[in-house]
Amino acid sequence: MKKSLILTLLILLSLLFILTIYILARKIFIPQYPGMVYIPKGEVVIGSDSSYPYESPQQKILLPAFFIDRTEVTNKQYKRFIDETGYPAPPHWKNNTYPKGEDDYPVVNVSLEDAQAYAKWAGKRLPTEFEWEKAARSSDGRIFPWGNFWEHNAANTSWLLSFGKIKKVASHEIDVSPYGCYDMAGNVREWTISKFEPYPGYIGDKRYFKPDLYVIRGGSYRLAKNFCFTYRRDAVEKTVKLPDLGFRCVKDIK
What we know:
Elements: H1 2-28, E1 36-39, E2 42-46, E3 59-63, E4 66-69, H2 75-85, H3 112-121, H4 129-137, E5 189-195, E6 213-217, E7 233-237, E8 245-246, E9 250-252
């Protein structure tokens, strides 16, 4: 009787030890995906109380962990997608090919549906606007991906509205978030999957919000630096295609 009790206790302790090791391993081991960065579970400050009404009220929300592309999806990556699937190329491409020498430029002139089709093919999805903001802003509420103060030539933005030139992804070393995401302040704006809706607790004018609008985030080479704040949100219809609008993808942690 005594021996069987001791054996039972040993088995239970062994199972407890194995379970503990398993839980710790799950916490320590984080899978790696090429071209993506890990965004840990935690709070993010969203919005601003000193900006446009539809960017308020500033608040903290909790998000689960996820992975997000280090840069916007490039022409080269998107071409592989259309070559393998027969999906239509962006309207400015000729013969299903982007301009020569622009392999590492962000793909643009894509609608929300185009971006979603690529994401599904890649085994990913588009970010919500809050996921995008956390990837750009971290948890400290910073104004720019690199901090709270503008730095000269920090991001690919325009000195005058609509004047500028698109560049390769990650061309500006300063324009990088604490998690390692590039070009979230400049180069091209980016699609999110979020409808343009009031933030929780919003009590302002509802005329800004329409059901057919989706949020786009980030600054671009065609916009001035005041468009590249981490909390800046704009909205367009999902069919819109613009020469300074691209996207990056997210992958869930299973």
